[in-house]
Write a structure and sequence with these properties.
The protein has about 600 residues and is mainly beta. The protein contains 6 helices and 35 strands.
Length: about 600
């Protein structure tokens, strides 16, 4: 059955893309992400931002976005939350492919090293019509870049910091008119044995290390045909903190392999991007690090995806996206899910129109077909109106979803095969102002989630997931930026604020681990060869249970650093993290490091 479906999709795609006449300049593996910026709230973190928070993706997102990061101690299990939603309602995209775990339906961002990517994109708000399950609160895009006609270049970056921490990356690129090559090898490790003496806390058994190898290739047959391949192999060893020396030490090991091959073809008014992807996730949990694994599992995904875009007129286009997946998994030991398998497909249709000088709009619809359950019909509608050069407003309305995971459906005992997908309706309206060197964005939003999946106890030892919760989430996001050159002086700053209410419709209580207020501030000042930067975030009162009885107090964390370009090829950096020595947690009981230091060296060649 699987082979027949693969064959059908391949013949179908070949039929659609049989001509060729359009010039290709630069390859964008995730070609949808750039289109989203016309109406959606988007943030892009480039290589400089990534190297400025190289310790982990958790640190990068915590200091460079309004996303709340819930981390069980530095380097341990970590998960994001957009706009009052959970980690399962956040989609992770690797070069346009959804890589959320088929076991848990989420991603552990401390097992996604940011040094593997040249760009980390953030999309706020729903995106299931394009990016599938989990894209309810927002999506995080891990992007690799393949360039042409850039010659040979590379970087070596090493950072050494407190608690025996090191982060290193070596990257080499070569490209000419027809060929592009990009290889990236990075490694991070830490003893991670920090202390918080005021709370008598020691991060025992907190060490971690991970290594990632990334290879990208692209070949341009002619100006209209381009083949590409991007792969990643990731290996990590992550220990889980304990509170007392007498406790048993545990650890978690992960091996991930991702491979994506594609063919881009341009033909007159049509463009096509055909992808084949294979994803494999292996994990092993050791209840005692000195013994064999307690549990584990392996998940495999085979994906065929096609993105066909046709310009029906000078100012409008139709975009048809089709995808087929075959997923299989196996649980080992106490990871009792058996050996589930699943066939699923989806079809999306989008229409975009910019016929009017000041008004752009688009409509989208999607239907998922899955053998295990019935999925909702999804839709999206958005528009952008440019009043003048100083003011633009956008409106987005959508229905999004999250599919039940293999653990939700098949866990023994307790899995519930009768679960329905979570569904959400949401709307947002952005107002964007610009005046000289200032830019201001204001985005109120509302989200209503139904059939939220929640695990509840059936007996003292058995829990089961049910569709029981409804959630109202609403809030306001603002962003003010300033950018100006004064001769040899350059100043860049960004201040963002978010107010979030996420209410259980039954209890009328704020959901746990969702702060009411979050503020981020980043500023850079550069003069000639030297640069100074500030990173800061404020986290407001955050409840740690669903009764609003227990909470973590507000706190502000401040980092200061400097970079000096010794020459065009050598850069030195120094950074002080948590310079005010603040005591804080992002998860109850798990304290984060106080003041610590890092020094780094970057070589360009």
């Amino acid at each position: 059955m699987t082979k027949r479906i693969f064959t059908f999709f391949f013949i179908y795609i070949i039929h659609q893309v049989s001509a060729q006449e359009y010039l290709i300049d630069t390859l964008f593996i995730d070609n949808q992400f750039s289109k989203l910026s016309k109406t959606a709230k988007i943030s892009n973190l480039n290589s400089d931002k990534i190297l400025g928070n190289s310790t982990s993706l958790s640190d990068l997102l915590r200091f460079q976005s309004n996303i709340y990061i819930k981390e069980n101690g530095r380097g341990a299990t970590s998960s994001p939350g957009f706009r009052g939603t959970t980690a399962q309602q956040t989609a992770f995209l690797w070069n346009g492919i959804n890589v959320n775990s088929i076991f848990l339906g989420q991603g552990d961002i401390n097992n996604m090293n940011p040094l593997s990517y040249e760009n980390v994109g953030i999309k706020f708000g729903g995106g299931s019509v394009i990016y599938g399950s989990g894209a309810i609160g927002g999506s995080i895009h891990l992007n690799n870049i393949l360039d042409f006609n850039r010659g040979f270049n590379g970087i070596l970056f090493s950072e050494y910091g407190s608690f025996g921490t090191s982060n290193s990356v070596a990257q080499v690129k070569f490209s000419n008119g027809n060929f592009s090559f990009n290889v990236n090898i990075n490694h991070s490790r830490s003893e991670n044995d920090y202390e918080v003496p005021q709370r008598k806390f020691i991060n025992r058994n907190g060490e971690y290390q991970n290594t990632s190898f990334n290879l990208g290739l692209a070949y341009k047959i002619n100006p209209n045909n381009e083949f590409y391949w991007q792969s990643q192999h990731y290996d990590s060893d992550q220990h889980y903190p304990i509170f007392e020396e007498s406790q048993t030490r545990t650890k978690y090991k992960v091996q991930t392999f991702r491979s994506l091959a594609g063919w881009k073809l341009h033909s007159g008014k049509s463009r096509n991007n055909f992808k084949l992807a294979y994803l494999e996730d292996n994990f092993q949990y050791f209840g005692d690090i000195n013994k064999t694994r307690t549990s584990g599992g392996i998940g495999k995904q085979y994906i065929i995806k096609n993105d066909f875009d046709l310009a029906v007129s000078k100012n409008s286009s139709i975009n048809f996206i089709s995808e087929y997946q075959y997923n299989e998994a196996e649980g080992v030991g106490t990871s009792a899910i058996g050996t589930p398998k699943r066939n699923q497909g989806n079809f999306s249709l989008l229409y975009r129109n910019n016929a009017l000088e000041k008004f752009y709009w688009e409509l989208g619809a999607k239907q998922e077909i899955v053998e295990d359950y019935k999925n909702p019909f999804l839709f999206s509608a958005s528009g952008k109106y440019s009043v003048n050069n100083r003011y633009q407003t956008t409106l987005n309305i959508s229905r999004n979803f999250r599919a039940p995971t293999f653990n939700d459906l098949y866990w023994k005992e307790g899995g519930n095969p009768k679960l329905k997908p979570e569904s959400s309706y949401q709307a947002e309206m952005s107002h964007n102002f610009s005046y000289r060197n200032f830019k201001l964005g204001i985005t109120p939003y509302y989200m209503y989630i139904v059939d939220m999946i929640q695990w509840i106890p059936v007996t003292s030892i058995i829990w089961t997931p049910k569709n029981i919760k409804k959630v109202d989430s609403y809030g306001l996001e603002t962003n003010l930026s300033f950018d100006k050159d004064f001769g040899k002086h350059h100043i860049n700053s960004n201040l963002s604020y978010s107010y979030t209410r996420s209410i259980n419709s039954e209890t009328k209580k704020q959901l746990m681990y969702i702060p009411f207020h979050k503020i981020n501030f980043n500023a850079d000042y550069q003069y000639s060869f030297i640069r100074f930067f500030v990173q800061a975030f404020y986290n407001g009162k955050t409840y740690t249970d669903n009764t609003e009885n227990n909470f973590m107090k507000e706190y502000m964390i401040l980092n200061l650093g400097t970079l000096a370009k010794i020459s065009s090829k050598i850069q030195l950096g120094f950074k002080v993290n948590n310079i005010t020595n603040q005591i804080y947690q992002t998860v109850d009981y798990y304290y984060m490091p106080q003041r610590n230091y890092a020094v780094n060296l970057k070589l360009n060649f």
